[in-house]
Automatic annotation (TrEMBL):
Annotated SUPFAM superfamilies: UDP-Glycosyltransferase/glycogen phosphorylase (SSF53756)
Name by which UniProt lists this protein: Glycosyl transferase family 1 domain-containing protein
Domain of life of the source: Bacteria
Pfam family, one: Glyco_trans_1_4
Length: 373
């Protein structure tokens, strides 16, 4: 099977670009011939979602490369990651579909971001809804991360929608954790985009609440990039009362990130990001056998085990503080969270399921209908 992929790989590093890289690197081992055109529109976290004329030229150049590849190869499946509920990104998708979709072959849409369907119903004007449903509607295959996130392809009348959870490479068995001294601070790790929508400021507020009840109970480590200077300034102002109980270590590569995960006692990710799907950082926490404190948001509750997981409503720092204190005093997972990861979220599991899903686009609908008679 031949697959032409128009999607961005790192940089910048975020869940969607990492999953595209996993696809590009891993699918050939499953018999899929991948032809990747990197939609290199953003250079860093601060550049995501911002308009630049250079992005338009890069998009047109990438679409022209896709057109040439598909004309040369003949019938191929075309893989694309649709926009979140943002007008500028949606217009980008229109251009990509106008230039790339008309060629022969199946259209595969992989919905890593969520919310476009509702945005079309609530915020888009009539023309935007009509054009979007014309250009992105009736996809041959739509892939969503969880049952609860299937609204977008349903809104656009996808011909076939399949559930495909994300997956990450196994970082390996974490070393045994020593029994934490109850008199010492519990080490919380936040890993991800350092923004208000990802819950960073709520987490700082929660640690302040917890310290008001149990002084010195936590030490918070924050790893990631800020999307803007304004949010970095706000972080430093809000975290100042915590003093040395909080440290910011910036963006970390794979090795340094794994060190942070091995050193942590609890992983906390209180996101309420509007376009959140299925955060990879939670899978990384499971792989390192960490207790998790997070929010009841998008697909998060359905992706985590019931044990050693605390889920609170977003925007409730007092409840988040209570969950952190409970996690601090609870037994460690002792391998249970890591087993859940190995059974559900490895890259091998994801790629095998992805290859099987993509092959459904090769079936002859007429032959299938005859076979069912």
């Amino acid at each position: 099977m031949k697959l032409v992929v128009l999607a961005q790989t790192p940089p910048p590093v975020h869940g969607q670009s990492l999953m595209v890289q996993t696809l590009v690197d891993g699918l050939p081992a499953y018999g899929i011939e991948v032809h990747h055109v990197n939609l290199a529109l953003s250079t860093d976290a601060a550049d995501i979602g911002r308009f630049r004329w250079g992005k338009l030229f890069a998009l047109l150049a990438a679409c022209f490369r896709v057109y040439r590849i598909r004309r040369k190869l003949g019938r191929t499946a075309f893989y694309y990651v649709p926009a979140p509920a943002k007008r500028g990104a949606l217009y980008r998708d229109w251009i990509a579909m106008i230039l790339c979709r008309p060629l022969e072959g199946a259209l595969v849409l992989h919905w890593h971001a969520v919310g476009l369907g509702r945005w079309l119903d609530v915020h888009a004007n009539f023309l935007e809804r009509a054009i979007t449903r014309l250009l992105l509607g009736r996809a041959d295959l739509s892939l969503v991360l969880a049952d609860s996130l299937a609204t977008d392809p349903i809104n656009l009348d996808a011909k076939n929608t399949l559930i495909l959870p994300n997956g990450i490479p196994d970082p390996g068995e974490p070393p045994p954790r020593e029994r934490r001294n109850p008199a010492e601070p519990c080490k919380i790790l936040y890993l991800g985009l350092c923004s208000e929508e990802k819950g960073l400021f709520e987490l700082i507020d929660a640690v302040l609440h917890a310290h008001a009840r149990q002084p010195g109970s936590f030490h918070l480590t924050i790893a990631g990039s800020f999307p803007s200077e304004a949010e970095e300034i706000k972080f430093r102002q809000l975290s100042a009362p915590l003093g040395t109980a909080v440290r910011y270590v910036g963006f970390n590569g794979e090795h340094a990130k794994n060190v942070l995960l091995r050193e942590a006692d609890v992983f906390c990710f209180p996101t309420h990001y509007p376009h959140e799907g299925q955060p990879l950082v939670l899978m990384e926490a499971l792989a390192h056998d960490l207790p998790i404190v997070t929010t009841r948001w998008r697909a998060i509750p359905s992706m985590l085990p019931a044990a050693h997981t605390w889920i609170v409503e977003p925007g409730r720092p007092a409840l988040l503080a209570a969950a952190l204190l409970e996690a601090r005093s609870s037994p460690r997972p002792a391998g249970a969270s890591r087993r859940f990861f190995l059974e559900n979220y490895t890259a091998d599991i994801h790629l095998a399921s992805l290859a099987a899903a993509l092959r459904t686009t090769q079936r002859d609908p007429t032959a299938r209908a005859e076979g069912q008679e």
